[in-house]
Automatic annotation (TrEMBL):
Transmembrane stretches, start-end: 12-34, 69-92, 99-122
Protein name, entry field: Ubiquinone biosynthesis protein UbiH
Alphabetical keyword list: Membrane, Transmembrane, Transmembrane helix
Amino acid sequence: MSFIQLLTQYPAFVPSILIGVLLVFWLAAIVGLLDFDSVGPDWIGGHDAGDVDGLPETVLALGFDRLPFSIVISAIGLYWWLLTMLAANLLLPLVPLPVWLGGTVLLAAALVAAVFLAAFSLRPLKPLFAVNAPATRESALGKRCRILTLSVEENFGQAEVDMGDGTRLTLQVYASVPNRLARDAQALIIDFDAGRKRYLVAEFDPP
């Protein structure tokens, strides 16, 4: 069976749709139309290192806490797609079941395996996202940052701040509208909204 045939037939086309959606999302994030952590449930309240109360036990057991939802779902989707494609090509023809039934069992088994593979492969990345919240909030306030998204709105925006010790942090930000904040513009971090886990920024014109 050719790759295109496999891609467009059941069951492989199901995770292929998810991969297509994820590709569109990441392209939009790359060009600055979206911030990569703006979609999905806020599992840890903005990646606070110790704030895990109320998290689903499954999330904690798998180690998905302190990881952005977009990263987790992308890893699961990729593994699900790869496993489904391989199994549909190699195993499904050998299974003495109707395609719809064998394909459904294959999809479920591949999804379970994908979740565990994603948990295993993403675990080393957790330190990159687990930031000590009190220290970050206090030290980021008053600093200049560079806008990463194409615009900054009241519920949208992302910026990079140099902490002065060689560390660069990517923060979720917001600003009152209208404003002139656009990609690569300089802004000043002036407040932190604990409810939304976002930093308030304002336009900054260097002297």
